[in-house]
Amino acid sequence: MPRQNAVRLCFQWYNASMPAIIRVLIETLSRCLLSRRDLILENLALRQQLAALVARSPQPRLTTCDRAFWVILRRLWPGWRHALVLVQPETVVRWHRIGFKMYWRWISRSRTRVGRKPTARGVRELIFRMIAENPTWGTPCIHGELKMLGFEISESTVLRWMRKAPRNPDPAKRWAAFLNNHREVIAAMDLFTVPTLSFGVLYCYFVIAHDRRRILHFNVTKHPTSAWTAQQLREAFPFDSAPKFLIFDRGSNFNSDVIDVIKTFGIEPKRTSFQSPWQNGVAERFVGNCRRDLLDHVIVLNERHLKRLMTEYVRYYHDDRTHLGLSKETPGGRKAELQDTGAGIIAMPRMGGLHHRYHRAA
Predict the structure, then answer these.
(1) Which of 126, 257, 324, 332 could bridge 226 with an S-S bond, Cβ 3.0-4.6 Å?
(2) Domain extents for the chain?
(3) For the domain bounded by 174-334, which CATH number is listed?
(4) Among 179, 170, 142, which Cα is nearest to 158's?
């Protein structure tokens, strides 16, 4: 290629300064130095342009076939620019881009299905059936059983359809019915963390009754061991005040030692299922209310500060705060006041002014 470029430069110099006969001789000599492939392609390009000139004289117009010819020649021959006379090289590049867009537009409009094959409806229904009939089976077990049945399906596809499987509503209905029918004799306990400014993370433990959402007991510690939790249960249920059922999650703090202490009170322990916070919804709702009403708006300094804040909040929670689950009443049984159009309304601050309770002026 460097030899060919040098020959073309010499040819351009002689073209400006030599007579026509000398130019023809030099051009013939340069063509002898080119390869046979280049000569054939250059001859083809010149003949194509000559045919366009002859057929459309005096003003040549290139057709779609002519444009396609130069687009293909551009891909096959590196020296196509030197044989181009009728149009600029940028025009051929533009034709190439237009053809590229037309090709992909045609591909996009085709009805050919792309991507993975859809899972057959029978296979989906079989996956849902296996989930319903085998609650303890995971993705590998179901995928292995399908493989034994001759179904060619990946484990990731099985997992995707397992997540879309309709859930059995019977266990949830039975649990909801149990809670509604026995709420007078049910209590729940739970732990939640509270970050502090200089004391690390503290744990707040509480026991809540289901009937009126009353907080039976709460305490704060940095190390919630099983022995500490057992002592809190003794303080929460003095004498014969223990409920019949106690609901709690599967936290490591509520181990077998704590369960043995619960049974000594004559309480039947009810552990929730794995990753099922809705089964202990009353306790979880109290945690959410406590965070939204108090902990998200204060900076806890230490254990003593948190105990004081929680004491004030439990008092506000019992006596002042209305609850949707209690028909807009309070756990402490706050009485509704009689309407008096002439009396003014007095605001009484609670929790340092975070919340208020309202009374009619006497």
Answers:
(1) 257
(2) 2-108, 121-166, 174-334
(3) 3.30.420.10
(4) 142
Burial label for 249, CB within 10 Å (0-12, 13-18, 19+), is: buried
User: Nearest 5 degrees, angle CA 92-CA 94-CA 96?
Assistant: 70
Please report which confidence band the pLDDT of residue 21 belongs to, taking 50, 70 and 90 as the band edges. low
Write down how long the chain is.
362
The pLDDT score that the predictor gives to residue 287 is 95
In degrees, to the nearest 5, what angle opens at C-alpha 98 toward C-alphas 97 and 99? 90
Q: Where are the alpha helices (DSSP H) in the chain?
A: 2-17, 20-33, 36-55, 64-76, 89-109, 121-133, 139-148, 155-163, 169-181, 226-236, 256-264, 281-293, 303-319
- pTM for this entry: 0.54
Distance CA 270, CA 259 (A): 10
39 pLDDT higher than 60: yes
Helix ranges restricted to H, 197-329? 226-236, 256-264, 281-293, 303-319
- Which residue, among 202, 203, 209, 267, has the nearest Cα to 234 in the 3D structure? 267
Give residue 291's identity as a one-letter amino acid code: R
Find the mean pLDDT for residues 250-271: 92
Highest mean pLDDT pick, 73-77, 215-219, 340-344:
215-219
**Side-chain half-sphere CA neighbours of 324 within 13 A:** 4
